[in-house]
Amino acid sequence: MKKIFLGGTCNNSTWRDELIPLLKVDYFNPVVEDWTSECQEIEEDEKDNKCDVHLYVITNAMTGVYSVAEVVDSVHNKHKTTVLQVIPDGFEGHAIKSLKAVVNLVNKRGGQAFFDSDLKALATRLNNQKSSIRAKHEHTLEA
């Protein structure tokens, strides 16, 4: 594994702060204090050329849907491994149903998607893979 792109919810979400100390693999964190066009170029280079795993963690701090669009785009790139973890805490009703459908879609398209709050288990999955975290992930979630 070359590098993991840490995409997903920003907006003062703490998942990166919790996950990064647990990682034993190289990663790129795109979050910066002042987002500029140069930051955008660096992120695109990292995603396209340096990171072979695209990780997206979605939390209830998300205010837009672009991260979900990035997940769907990534899972269709067969040269990348896409991992999605939806942390369900704080989501309700239709949002839960919709996010479970996204998890199922990502799994169906060859990515790995999980609907749980366990960042330690996520770190273990990422750390224990030598060249790719791609594995059969057969289960789907009831919407």
Tell me the layout of helices and strands.
Layout: E1 4-8, H1 15-19, E2 27-28, H2 37-50, E3 53-58, H3 66-75, E4 81-86, H4 93-108, E5 112-115, H5 119-127
Parallel strand pairs: 1-2, 1-3, 3-4, 4-5
List keywords for this structure.
single chain; 143 residues; alpha/beta; Rossmann fold; five-stranded parallel β-sheet; 5 helices; 5 strands
Question: Can you describe this structure in just a few lines?
Answer:
The protein has 143 residues and is of the alpha/beta class.
Fold and architecture overview:
This protein is α/β, with parallel strands linked by helices and 143 residues long. It has one domain (4-127): Rossmann fold (3-Layer(aba) Sandwich). The protein has helices at residues 15-19, 37-50, 66-75, 93-108, 119-127, and strands at residues 4-8, 27-28, 53-58, 81-86, 112-115. Strands 2-1-3-4-5 form a five-stranded parallel beta sheet, with helices on one face. The chain is globular. The termini are far apart. Residues 131-139 have low confidence and may be disordered.
